[in-house]
Amino acid sequence: MPKINAERLLSDLRRFAQFGAYRTGVHRPTFSQEDMDSRHWLAQQYDAVGLQAHIDGVGNVFGMPRTERRSLLIGSHAESQNYAGWLDGALGVIYGLEIARTFAGTQDRAGLPIALVAWADEEGHYVPMLGSRSYVGDIDEAEIDRAVNVDHGLPLRDALRAAGLAGVPRSLAEPGRHIGYLEAHIEQGDVLEASRKRIGVVTSIVGIWQYSIVFHGLQNHAGTTRMAIRRDAGLAAAKLATTIADCFPKAAGPRTVWTTGRITLEPGAPNIIPGKAEMLFQFRDSETLVLERLDALLRTLVEEVAIKIGCRAEIERTETGKPWHMDPAFQQAIENAAARQTPGAHMRMPSGASHDAQVVARKIRAAMLFVPSIGGISHYWTENTDDADLILGCQVLADAAEMILRGESR
Questions:
Q1: 100-135 as b/e, with b when 16 or more CB fall inside 10 Å?
Q2: Distance separating alpha carbons of residues 356 and 183, to the nearest angstrom
Q3: What is the C-alpha separation between 54 and 150, in angstroms, rounded?
Q4: Which helix (H) or strand (E) holds 84?
Q5: How much is the pLDDT for 409?
Q6: Which residues, 6+ apart, have CB-to-CB distance to 343 below 8 Å?
Q7: Which of 13, 65, 121, 132 is deepest in the core (most CB within 10 A)?
Q8: What's phi and psi for 114, nearest 5 deg?
Q9: Domains of the chain
């Protein structure tokens, strides 16, 4: 099995974290100067390892082997959340670089073709999964024309122009070009840590179903309106949130999660009964049947609460992300590699967060590997993983990559 260079891996991870460094994390939003600097640096590294490097029209950075043989694509996303962690996305990008370097520097593996990618805007500063969706042909020019930055409203077209990408073609997945796709990521939760495991073999990636729920009540004076005749939209939203907490556990799967992310009241004054309340709500699971069951239950609860409080309710599903199961043979390759490197310290698990792998999997066989997040923290600048786990994760992925390329997982 290939032996990665642990010192080089950690050095590159820390070098990459200098692009947009913030406290112990990074602030590297999509198409910012820091983000583009990091992408140009990656292209230079891809070129130096002997790959054909280019940045496509939505900012994806590719490093393609100079061979007609089918390659194994490895990567993740390069940008970060705002004022967030140094490993989210970056881990998988630098793992790919280290594996390509290791293979290129080992005589009996130099002919095993590794392709590299750093996807753009997985984090959704403009369009969630922009880069990977573009690669699989799931986004058209009209959607790109409509997209704006969620923080400051800059149109995506303007951001691409400022980044020097106006008129640059978008790369599309070519049938048969790749054997498959591997992505490594920090877990972003505490399951591995709590289980005292060091490697997660991702079985599936959750679907996310999100809703806008609006209650229309009767706005009135808070001091003179008797409780018996009130139609309080704010009360309806609060009642729904607690009713969900009571009822969802009976219909949920073992790893289902749900969140009321925002409740907005109108007019939002202490002396006025809210006439309108909007609630943003989502649930996640890796099984479509569970998602459908929760959808039906949610609609029933909304109707029941509206009747009880005396309000009119509207519910709209605003996001319907499909769950996606990872390739079974690739999962087995990662599990075999983990068992070889750290017997008894790995586990199979679903991903509770979305990743580019679930998009790429629509066109290419795909799998993911997780390493632990200390304290389960991510999307915050204190995000971290032990160096030993960073090294182990890359070694396991390198071993799995060799197995796949040599046909051991087919």
A1: bbbbbeeeebeebbbbbbbbbbbbebbbbbbbbbbb
A2: 8
A3: 27
A4: none
A5: 46
A6: none
A7: 132
A8: -105, 130
A9: 6-206+330-405 (3.40.630.10), 208-320 (3.30.70.360)
> How many residues are present in the chain?
410
What is the CA 322 to chain-centroid distance, rounded? 13
pLDDT score of 76: 98
Contacts of 240 (CB under 8 A, 6+ apart): 213, 215, 279, 301, 302, 305
- Provide block-wise average pLDDT over 10 residues at a time, the chain (410 residues): 93 98 98 98 98 98 96 98 98 98 91 97 97 97 98 97 98 96 97 98 96 98 97 98 98 96 97 98 96 98 98 96 94 98 97 95 97 97 98 98 82
CA distance 165 to 348: 40
CA distance 232 to 129: 39
Which segments within 111-216 are labelled E, that is strand? Answer: 114-119, 178-186, 199-205, 207-216
Q: What angle do CA 297, 301, 304 make, to 5 degrees?
A: 140
